[in-house]
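USER:
Make up one protein:

ASSISTANT:
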Amino acid sequence: RPKSIGKVHAFYGNVGILVRAYAYIRTLGAEGLRRVAEIATLNANYLRVKLRDRYHLPHNRICQHEAVFSAKNQAAHGVKARDIAKRLLDYGFYAPTVYFPLVVEEALMIEPVETESKEEIDRFVKAMIAIADEAEKNPDVVRNAPHTTPVRRLDDTRAVREPDVRWTRR
């Protein structure tokens, strides 16, 4: 196909990422790997405790490397998990996984990895609290996010029905 970008990865998957993961594990060693797992778990639980008063916790117990929240509290103001994820982009954060796990209504799965500093997690917490405040006081700001990115909201329905999977040089 003339307008195709070709194969995205080889038949055997993305070998480069496997090599990278292997190198990371070998570099850390057994003790280092244990330590980064502990840090990731501590980060997730720190985040869970900091946000539990503003975001619903479907399972209020110690978590592993990811904290799962529900935007159920914000949904009362017409704000959905997807809106919160989009608003985080305005605060300079990559959007978390939304609507997974499927058993959690309006799920936000946040995974503060081992390389995140406490200062960065605190900055994230402040952003999430600010978004919770916005959802209560001015929900349209959250519902219409992002406001500062080059591309605003995409039409998800149209994207599924009319996929544009070609790359064109501008």
Summary: The beta strands are 67-70, 97-98, 107-110. DSSP finds six helices and three strands in the chain. The domain at 15-153 is CATH 3.90.1150.10 (Aspartate Aminotransferase, domain 1).
